[in-house]
Design a protein that fits this description.
The chain contains 13 helices and nine strands. It is α/β, with parallel strands linked by helices. Helix 1 packs parallel to helix 6 and helix 8 crosses helix 12. The structure holds nicotinamide-adenine-dinucleotide. GO terms for molecular function: 3-hydroxyisobutyrate dehydrogenase activity.
């Protein structure tokens, strides 16, 4: 059993922390927002009086914050100084690759260990402990973190050294964004050619057009009854989160001078989608922008 400081008890953090409690760990949680603290307390998490208080005396610190700037400032302002030497910092927020590497360097300079372990699988995955973790870590730190990640997730992939968990996350989500757009385009094109949704689905789902954006997150109602299109694009995975992740992909594309024109275009399209009502809708709802376009 470990004593774990869990910081950031939002949509993802709270159910993840609860799964660690279920697995028998001693979890001390903290969040900046009173409503998140109240919800966590009601769910049975022990709440510390501050981030530093949660960290003091813990063997492991898990952060699940909105963005990289929150991670870097929390590390610098209080967490690293409050931790006992050699504490294992597991950073699970989705942040830029260079921010993950900067957080790693800060933790190492302060005498600690650090891994990046972003997730996919959403709130349902967090609740059911079926998250996928993409991990950037040394072999030794990966082995130390593995039992904890297994308590919160189902598929844990060691992607390489520090930062490479975040690299895998941005690359995967860039594939997802581009494929969700083109699946939407194909359905709208099919509509205009007189092709029914069911007919296109039956062909593509069993042919070389097969992909998750089609067979799980089908952007038209009907063929896949559980997809967000059947509930007016209630997320699912919200457009705002996809736009955020593509912003991180764009940063990586620019830093590496990669000729990723599809990824760049997906970033533009999702930034526009998320700036309107799409921010709160499932990202497959981009099909309505495509249908409304010329
Ligand atoms: P959220 O906004 O619901 O929760 C983040 C929490 O962190 C907030 O409650 C906030 O108050 C807290 N916080 C910020 N700074 C803090 C600090 N210094 N100390 C303590 N608490 C602090 O966000 P979320 O949906 O839980 O997502 C968390 C991360 O996971 C994000 O990086 C997101 O991109 C990623 N992610 C989310 C999903 C999803 O479906 N929601 C899926 C995969 C990955």
């Amino acid at each position: 059993m470990s004593r774990i400081a869990f910081l950031g008890l939002g949509h993802m953090g709270l159910p993840m922390a609860l799964n660690l409690v279920k697995a028998g760990h001693e979890v001390h949680g903290f969040d900046l927002v009173p409503a998140a603290i109240e919800a966590a307390q009601a769910a049975g998490i022990t709440i510390a009086s501050s981030g530093a208080d949660a960290v003091a005396g813990s063997d492991v610190v898990i952060t699940m914050f909105p963005a990289g700037k929150h991670v870097i400032s929390a590390y610098q302002d209080e967490l690293l100084a409050a931790a006992a030497p050699g504490t294992l910092f597991i950073e699970s927020s989705t942040i830029a690759v260079d921010e993950a590497q900067a957080a790693h360097a800060l933790a190492i300079a302060a005498g600690h260990r650090n891994i990046d372990a972003p997730v996919s699988g959403g709130v349902v995955g967090a609740e059911n402990a079926t998250l996928a973790f993409m991990v950037g870590a040394s072999d030794e730190d990966f082995a130390a973190a593995l039992p904890l990640l297994e308590a919160m997730g189902k598929r844990i992939v060691h992607c390489g050294g520090p930062g490479l968990g975040q690299a895998a996350k941005v690359c995967n989500n860039m594939i997802l964004a581009v494929s969700q757009i083109v699946v939407g385009e194909a359905f709208v094109l099919g509509e205009r050619l007189g092709l029914s949704h069911d007919a296109l689905y039956d062909v593509a789902a069993n042919a070389s057009g097969q992909c998750w954006a089609l067979t799980t997150n089908c952007p038209v109602p009907g063929p896949v009854p559980t997809s967000p299109a059947n509930r007016e694009y209630q997320p699912g995975f919200a457009g705002a989160l996809m736009a955020k992740d593509l912003g991180l992909a764009l940063k990586a594309i620019e830093q590496t001078s990669t000729d990723a024109r599809m990824g760049r275009l997906a970033q533009e399209l999702y930034a526009t989608f998320a700036a309107g009502e799409g921010g709160g809708r499932d990202f497959s709802g981009i099909i309505t922008d495509i249908r409304d376009g010329q």
